[in-house]
Fold:
Amino acid sequence: MEMINLSGHILNSLPLGDLTWKRDLIYFEGPLLSEFVSERGEIFLKYWCDCDNQYNRWIYFKIKEQDRLRLVQGEISLYQVMRDQPDSYFFFADENESSGYFKLVPESQVPNEYFPEEDSFLDVRDYTEDESVTSLLFEDEWDFEDLKTLYRKFIQAYDFLYLSVNSSQRLNNSMPWQGGFSTVHFFNKIKDLIPSGLDGSLNSIHYASPGYMKLRTDSNVSRHLLFAVKHYMDNRNDVDTVYLELSNRIRELELNKMAVDSARNSFVLDVVCMRLYQNLFQLLPSVDNNWLRGFVDTDFERCKILMAYVRRLRSIDSFLNEKNVRVVTSIFSDQ
Structure:
């Protein structure tokens, strides 16, 4: 069994510096496609392409982050990534346990047999994004205000669920919840309750299309939020119906215009308000009921907090479904 003879420039070693393994992307009785990062933060893929009785032949090539994210999301193929890679050459390594031979080969001289099929899309069901990072993808030119809104809504929902998932301390500041100021103030206050460095924040952004936004998050809480968004998508009509009925009932009773204590008492005494509030809670399994009861003192406050949370889920859903934002995750793979 012989490998294809390669043209190109012979190298003493791979001139890529120290590469750190990050993950295997294709694995069958051993890795076939793996991701590495260089000391300078450049991303390289290592792809198996041939073998003989002594050596395995691997192709090393650079990949842009926006392409890597779309590759693991199953949106572009490995073939397309290799054909569109930033450089006009590939590094080849014939390796075994004790030795290796290396070549620099221009793309035009790479045998066609070494490229995968054009429909070589990855199976992303088992893919796990970088620890403590949530990546969002978007295309075309975006208004910067839209990106700020997407970031703000996602992080606000994330921060809220961080407290719920971790059963964090109570909110010591009581707010009237009668106007938009309370909502803004609430999400600012809950960020202060999260230990420094564990709140959601911007990691990086690539604005030009194809673009991406990477958020620094706790992986468990982020996954919790993504399942919450998925649950909202699956139950959108029910959640929005209860939300609308509850909002209309609060408006009908003029609770937003009463003195704060009167509004809280009237809410609890109104059978319709309490029924709708409980229905909304049941439609939001992502929020810990026991935690929220200890977080604030009254059902009126809890209801208003849940309604603010629903608006953020709705906003995230809108970005995903109407503006073609995608999250690098397998959670939405069956949408």
Observations:
- The first strand starts at residue 9 and ends at 11.
